[in-house]
Prior knowledge:
Chain A has helices spanning 5-23, 54-63, 123-127, 153-157, 179-182, 189-193, 211-217; strands spanning 40-45, 72-79, 88-90, 108-115, 133-135, 141-143, 164-166, 171-173, 199-203, 220-221, 233-236. With 243 residues, chain A is of the alpha+beta class. Chain A has a domain at 38-118 and 176-236: Alpha-Beta Plaits (2-Layer Sandwich). Helices cover 46% and strands 0% of the residues of chain B. The chains are: A alpha+beta (243), B mainly alpha (157). At the A-B interface, helix 2, strand 2, strand 4, helix 5 and helix 6 of A face helix 2 and helix 5 of B.
Amino acid sequence: MTLNRRQILMLLPAAAVAWDFVLAGTPEESPNYKSSEHWWGMLLDITKCIGCGSCVRACAMENDVPDGYFRTWVERYHVTDWHVENPIVDSPNGGKDGFPQSNLAGGKNFFVPKLCNHCAESPCTQVCPVGATFHTADGVVLIDYNYCLGCRYCIQACPYGCRFFNPERHTAEKCTLCYHRITKGLTTACCESCPTGARQLADLKNPKDPIHEFLKTHAVQVLKPHLATGAKMFYNGLDGSVR
Amino acid sequence: MSKFKDSAHLIRLAAVFVLAAAVFVAVRAAVIPKSYGQYGPYRGDALREITSRPVVYAGHETCEGCHPDVLEIKSKGVHAHVNCESCHGPQAKHAEDPGTVKPTLPDVGKLCVRCHSENIAKPSGFPQVDAKEHAQGLACNTCHKPHSPGFDAGGKK
């Protein structure tokens, strides 16, 4: 059978529709969730963060994060005058128990919540030798714990220090953006428990998401933009001293 | 046309290649997980394993379904934007089985200072106190009602 050009052109749209179905995979546990309809990120408002550590505790409880390891954590910055490149940073127990009062008066003091940036061009995914780390169609970076060898290459590759080695499972581990929650229409545990709204889950593909209005009207930055990782954690009020 | 001389050599060689290809295809089919490539270049089952994790934090919409009275008090006060489980902890189990799983009341002495103790790095507009000096040993909820701690609804400030 031979196809002429007209027939091929007529078949192309059908093939495109079929391919769309291939891409729009739907996990069985979330029957109404279509991953091709979402593109997840988060808004972190430094001007609202009070360093209470609710997010860190919630994350640990929701995801069984072992003690002393963090999928999300909070840092406290102190920047004196012009020492923008040498901020004093502390994060006692990841901020899980809150922060004791600091005696570093004079200069800027602020909290910075951190977590996996779910980069669109993530270095961790690129270095995995066995393809255990992958991007989902909705922009979340996940780990296949059955495939992970525990070589720790990704832990070194992440420029944001967001990965750690799980001492019980002996695999790499990181924030899943509460994938088991967001596919059910819930927000992440950290966003749910944040008392000031400093963390807000954002669906960048949803035109009705309030993130769009916020991004259009505020000076927002991602961490280490010069690395072109396609980070999707947007920080409002981010100081230049934050690394 | 005369028969190619020693064609048996070629047939044997071809047989080796065919066999090798068959072994390759069989091993490949056996080694690659069934769900690989279902959604992308990874094991589809990995996605199912991750999404099947039980939810621990029920979400404030779930709480508000059964506790509209608290929502009404809370929505008028300064704690309107604070979600239930931010103070009460994860309650998905309670939401599933409210009869047997009862949440414990948070310890006010520890709970309030988590957010409201004085810290130099907190945004300056955020209400914060030196708890020892401010409370003089009294529990916070002696004066402030946690669901609506402001001037009007919560009694005296």
